[in-house]
Design goal:
Distance between the termini: 84 Å
Number of strands: 11
Low-confidence stretches: 215-223, 926-932
Radius of gyration: 37 Å
Structural class: mainly alpha
Strand order of the largest sheet: 4-5-6-3-7
Number of helices: 44
Largest sheet: 5 strands, parallel
């Protein structure tokens, strides 16, 4: 079993292997009950063996399993293969691939279980055959075809159904001068394919047979060879005026160096179509010819430069028998043939800079246009033309050009839905248009409905051999496992923009590594940079079609990755919560669910608490949703609990309410989940001034079954709601209980807020100004000790009213100004509204009516901008009192009635009583009452 564990770890190529995968490798579908224990025992034995062999520490324990951190043969083979594919000289390629093939000695995976061997041996065999095929290609390119024939013959006999080997054997025989044997090899290949598979040879085999059969006819020396290889222009092409003009201007520019243009963009964005369109428009400037090659940069085996050069040289008149052998010789011949001429070269779908360097003409009269899915940062001195999605207007033109304008006459809304689903990607638009053109009975409305379903979108955006999914498949095949997992995770999260921190827990890598992953995905044009967020940190976004592709073809987050992601989200949001409120979050559920992150990691992600939550709120709520769907109810609860306060500060009550509704559906009998969902729901109802709803909701929860911190939050909210409903005695009881809970949990800010509430209750409901002043003094002392600005501002507002009721308007004005400054400094427009209303009342009581009117007018403007009917009603009431004090009873009555009408939008009996009191003063011509 130890050999199997070692083999499984080695084949993972320094990637973590979960315990579950090791169990599958050892026992398949019938593991024993002690499987996990036995795996741990085998890993321990393996570590001991490796220690004795001088490889101490090679087996590393990670959160998701084990990792073998040392170089093994399969690593070296893949490294050599990658280096060989990047080599420009076929001789170098051949040497590297021969070294890789020499790593095979004996039968791989000897002595492992049949479960592991059955899964891995086919992959290793395929790797070996691919290496052999590419080595043969390189050897043929070096002119060493004859010496390959014995090995090629053996390979064909061992793998008779592999057409690529038949093709290489025919080519080697032909290049070795054995034309008849090459044709006989073709007949043998045809027979085997027909007899065994019932199919005819591929186009590649047929083309090679035709080449062997052809008899070269020498061209007359006087006939100039003028290649015209550009593909036909794409039907339906529209837009790209600025980009096309940039390409045409670049290739027309005459300098001492040949122009080079690099067109880049995501799959399907129209790079080839634009390059061909601009190239065709520039043909007149290149009378000596236009060369075109598809470099197959997104294929597993991109076109080799020496193969492309052979095609160019044949187009320029070089006969096959005179073809230079090495890539250097072919490049030299190509540049000689284009010297002093005006030739346009279009290199489509390039993989790397090394691939295109030998293919560029050197004469200043020639120009090269390159397209690539990658940004190719190593390409220098190029005019870069990045392509973005088409605007809706141009996208509509493309759709109409392909489908026919008459087919789009069913209504602007359905056409707009199709355009939106295609995301401005020309390939998707042309496919959608082609479907409408090909199927007259397919209505635009039906196509729009199909494309609106994200789970069907990839299937629908396929017509004939063209497919958005295939185009994206080609790019995804170029990604390593981490990059693919990153794309799947970001698609599962689905936030409009994001930073890299979610990838650290998902990939189980250090935070610093996520920047490299994101940079690579941006370089591959699978992600875009979206600019800085509210916290100033650069953000990224994923195109809707790419997201739909990832969700359709990629695996969802595995349970371990989701658990780590939720733990990170809880830990980071708790840090933000504590930074915003200035007090520790003492909820027990946080200790159960938050990931134990290092402080420097938290600090690098959450630089400014509230702006960070504002920037990442969509990501955090998406993680919450994934946790709920994944059965991680406690982590979801913890995340929503620490999101509640930031959502309030950001005025995103609706987001919290919707999340709470989802949590309620999975709460079951868990008291913490039920109470959290109720508290967040109540917070949103409180914001909408639905105070009776808050009382009903919070009185139904199992409050005694949760920790002190959570209980105190609920009691505080319940006391506030009771007070707004006019039930002062119940409010005092609830808030006194909350004081005890906050004190026991060491929450100074919470305790301060409760004393401020008690001050208001004793003042307004019991008329006990002495108790009100005592609680107000405690509230101020505790708030200043806590140091959190929001609590300090709110407490001062309460004490303002107590000072007014006690006949001290000067003190009230000073406290109101302090509260307003705190709200202004911290960007709280709703808080500023209440502070300005309190200032207006204080100035009025102090006899300064102009200052009172200025404050009330500002409060009214802010209340209307923030759409708060309760704050607007209070500001109008302050203005009515000012007009009454100024002696204009008609204006006071009109404004007071406007305040009263707003009361219908919220249910606060206390505030309604305040308005009715002012109306009574106006109607009965009573004194205005400075203490109000």
């Amino acid at each position: 079993m130890g050999r199997t564990v070692l083999a499984a770890l080695a084949l993972a190529c320094r990637k973590p292997v979960s315990v579950e995968r090791l169990i599958d490798a050892l026992w398949g579908e019938l593991p024993p009950a002690t499987a996990r224990t036995q795996v741990h025992i085998q890993v321990s034995k393996l570590r001991a063996s490796l220690d004795r062999a001088g490889a101490a520490g090679a087996v590393v324990t990670v959160s998701s399993g084990y990792l073998l951190d040392c170089l093994v043969d399969v690593d070296e083979v893949r490294r050599l293969l990658s280096t060989a594919r990047a080599a420009a000289d076929p001789a170098d390629t051949a040497g590297l691939l021969r070294s890789a093939l020499d790593r095979w000695t004996g039968t791989p995976l000897g002595g492992v279980t049949p479960h592991l061997a059955g899964a891995e041996l086919p992959r290793l065999d395929e790797l070996r055959i691919c290496l052999a095929e590419e080595w043969i290609d390189a050897e043929i390119a070096c002119g060493r075809a004859a010496r390959l024939l014995p090995e090629l013959t053996a390979l064909v006999q061992a793998h008779p159904l592999r057409e690529g080997l038949h093709h290489r054997r025919m080519l080697a025989l032909y290049r070795a001068g054995r034309r008849a044997d090459a044709l006989a090899a073709f007949q043998e290949a045809r027979r085997v394919l027909r007899d065994e598979l019932g199919i005819d040879p591929s186009r590649e085999l047929l083309a090679l047979e035709a080449e062997i059969l052809s008899v070269e006819t020498p061209r007359a020396a006087t006939v100039a060879v003028v290649p015209a290889q550009l593909p036909p222009r794409t039907s339906g092409f529209a837009g790209r005026d600025a980009e096309s003009a940039a390409i045409r201007a670049a290739v027309a520019r005459r300098t001492d160096a040949p122009p080079l243009v690099l067109v880049t963009g995501m799959p399907g964005i129209g790079k080839t179509a634009l390059a061909v369109h601009a190239g065709a428009a520039s043909v007149h400037a290149y009378p000596d010819g236009q060369l075109y090659a598809d470099l197959r940069g997104a294929d597993a085996r991109p076109a080799a430069p020496h193969e492309v050069l052979a095609g160019f040289l044949r187009a320029l008149g070089v006969p096959a028998r005179s073809m230079p052998a090495s890539v250097e010789e072919r490049t030299a011949e190509f540049r000689s043939r284009t010297a002093g001429k005006r030739v346009l070269v279009v290199l489509d779908n390039a993989a790397t800079a090394r691939q295109i360097e030998p293919l560029m003409a050197a004469d200043p009269g020639c120009a090269t246009v390159v397209t690539s899915r990658s940004v190719l940062p190593e390409v220098e001195s190029a005019v870069r033309v990045p392509l973005a999605p088409l605007s809706d207007r141009v996208a509509g033109t493309v759709l109409a050009n392909v489908a026919g304008a008459a087919r789009l006459g069913e209504g602007e809304d359905t056409v707009a839905t199709v355009i939106e689903a295609c995301g401005g990607v020309p390939l998707a638009l042309r496919i959608a248009g082609a479907q409408l053109a090909a199927y007259p009975k397919l209505s635009v409305a039906e196509l729009a409905a199909r494309l609106s379903d994200e789970s069907r979108r990839m299937r629908e955006l396929t017509v004939g051999h063209r497919s958005v999914r295939d185009s994206l498949d080609a790019s995804f095949r170029l990604l390593d496992r981490d990059a693919r997992a990153a794309m799947s995770a970001l698609a599962a999260i689905g936030a409009p923009t994001f930073t890299g921190w979610p990838l650290a827990p998902v990939l189980d890598v250090p935070l610093a590594c996520t920047d490299e992953v994101l940079a690579h995905l941006c370089a591959m044009n699978l992600l875009d940079q979206a600019g800085p967020g509210r916290d100033g940190v650069p953000r990224y976004r994923m195109h809707d079609l790419v997201r739909a592709y990832c969700r359709t073809v990629g695996p969802s987050l595995d349970p371990g990755a989701l658990d780590r992601l939720a733990g990170w989200a809880v830990a980071l949001t708790r840090h933000a919560y504590e930074g915003i409120l200035g007090t520790p979050a003492g909820y027990t559920v946080l200790a159960e669910t938050a990931a134990p992150l290092e402080q420097d990691v938290v600090g690098r992600v959450v630089k400014e608490p509230l702006p960070w939550v504002g920037a990442d709120v969509d990501v955090l709520l998406a993680v919450f949703g994934l946790a709920v769907r994944g059965g991680l109810t406690r982590p979801a609860t913890a995340l929503l609990l620490v999101l509640r306060a930031p959502l309030v500060r950001l005025d995103l009550y609706g987001h919290g309410a919707r999340a709470a509704a989802r949590l309620t559906t999975v709460a079951g009998a868990d008291p913490v989940v039920r109470v959290t969902a109720a508290l967040v729901t109540a917070t949103a109802r409180m914001h909408r001034s639905r105070y009776a709803d808050v009382v009903a909701i919070l009185n139904e929860v199992p409050l005694r079954e949760v920790d002190l911190a959570l209980r105190a939050e609920v009691l505080t909210k319940l006391g506030d709601a009771y007070e707004r409903c006019g039930d002062g005695h119940r409010a005092i009881t609830a808030v006194r209980e909350a004081v005890v809970c906050f004190r026991k949990s060491g929450n100074l800010a919470g305790e301060s807020g409760c004393h401020a509430t008690l001050a208001a209750l004793y003042r307004d409901h019991l008329g006990d100004l002495g108790a009100a002043r005592a609680h107000g003094t405690k509230a101020l002392r505790l708030a200043d000790a806590a140091g959190e600005w929001k609590t300090r501002a709110q407490v001062r507002l309460v004490v303002v009213r107590t000072a007014l009721a006690s006949g001290d308007p000067a003190a009230a004005a000073g406290l109101a100004e302090q509260a307003r400054c705190l709200s202004e400094q911290n960007g709280d427009p709703i808080g500023q509204t209440w502070c300005l209303t309190a200032e207006a009342d204080a100035h009025r009581a102090n006899g300064d009516l102009p200052a009172a009117r200025r404050s009330a007018d500002r409060a009214l403007g802010l209340a209307r901008r923030t759409r708060r009917p309760d704050a607007e009603s209070a500001a109008l009431l302050a203005l009515a009192s000012i007009e009454l004090a100024a002696g204009d009873r008609a204006a006071a009555r009109r404004i007071a009635h406007a305040s009263l009408r707003l009361q219908d939008q919220f249910d606060s009996p206390v505030e309604r009583v305040g308005v009715e009191k002012v109306l009574a003063e106006i109607d009965c011509q009573l004194p205005s009452g400075a203490g109000r």
